[in-house]
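User: quick one, fold this
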Amino acid sequence: MKILRIDSSIKGDASVTRQLTAKITEQLGGDVVVRDTTTIPLIDGTWIGAAYTPADKRTDEQKELLALSEELIAEIKDADAIVVGMPLYNFGVTGPLKAWIDMICRVGETFQYTEEGPRGLVSPKRVYVAYASGGVPQGSGYDLATAYVTQVFGFIGLTDLTFISAEGVAMGEAEAIAKAEEQIKGLAA
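Assistant:
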């Protein structure tokens, strides 16, 4: 099995979600590609212009601008399963995770517009999301990340999501991690 592991915490080795994504991929087994999103640049108007230019009409500069996006999309399409680290920062996803999402949501590549509405172009696969928060319960009114990530992944065709939650890290990190690790033990590839 090919697993794509996405890490988005800016805390490096001190990151709870990085610990959890490592444990999830270990539990699942297989070949793992790790993508650290903290170095992914933000998109801008020039990038959007390149993305909406037909592939056969793109300049060399536009092709270069989209090269990372092409690489990230290929990683998703090549994976059998995806493991995403999603720490909650100020009620939402991290900036690095949002930058990765912006790079992978491309019309004609990962979704298309139809008369019935948008349709995802990524073949179905399991997505495991490691959620960690200082004190915000997953699914509560303060958790804006879970619904957002569910919507975005569904938009590109990924609807089989499993959340592993480490809630209340600020009030008891060891206990929060232990609860998440129990959830991980029940995962099957």
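User: anything notable?
Assistant: The domain at 2-185 is CATH 3.40.50.360 (Rossmann fold).
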